Amino acid sequence: MAKKPDETKVEPGQDSPFSEDTGKGSEESPSCSVNTEEVLEPEVIEDESSDDEVQNLKAALAASNDKYMRLSAEWDNFRKRSAQEYESSKIRATEKLIEALLPVIDDLERACQAAENTNPEGEFKAFTQGVEAVHDKLVQTLETKAKLVVIDPIDEAFDALKHQAVGQVENKEVFDETVCNVLQKGYELGGYVIRPAMVQITTGGPKRPSEDE
């Protein structure tokens, strides 16, 4: 009858007969050694790449902000320029209409002046007052709706940009080049003189002091 091989029993707390060899094997195995430098090196490279990405993002953000500011400034300039062109086109269209109405206004003024000089207290006074009322209403409407400005520079200093001198009157009691008579009123629209006032100015008087004096 064959004998069973001896079975080695390990009591609790007793070391296994194979534990020593196993420990020695693990200590002598080169595959279990750890190189600290090799583990940390990828982390350093990753941090450097992250810094580069942050710098690139900052540069891209600065470029985007600069582009936005330029586009915003260009849009603001375009909006202002378009508004100015629109206002200028309105003024040009209104200017043509007013220039066509100016002779009518002149005729009304001449008619009223002639009636007053001919018969100031006569039977046509009521009619003359009616014509004057029509004239005033027409001019007031143009001043309100079209921003028309009447140039009536009586007793003012002569301004070559707004006045047209057609005669001189000697007068030593007032400053030289003072408007003494307005033969035809001028008109200004949108900051531009569409017709200068036709005037007579004084001569022979003292020089007008400058604004600085």
Query: Quaternary status of these chains?
Result: single chain
Secondary-structure-based class equals alpha+beta
Share of β-strand residues: 15-25%
Question: Taking all residues together, what is the mean pLDDT?
Answer: 80
Helix/strand order:
HHHEEEEEE
**Topology, number of strands:** 6
Count of folded domains? 2
With strands numbered from the N-terminus, the spatial order across the biggest sheet is 1-4-5
What is the general shape?
elongated
CATH architecture level-2 label of the largest domain: Alpha-Beta Complex
CATH class of the largest domain: Alpha Beta
CATH fold-level name of the largest domain: Hemagglutinin Ectodomain, Chain B
Name the helicity range: 40-55%
The value of Rg in angstroms is 51 Å
The CA-CA distance between the termini, in Å, is 147 Å
Q: State the major sheet.
A: 3 strands, antiparallel
Number of helices: 3
* Poorly predicted runs of 5 or more residues: 18-32
Summarize the structure.
This protein has 213 residues and is of the alpha+beta class. Helices cover 54% and strands 15% of the residues.
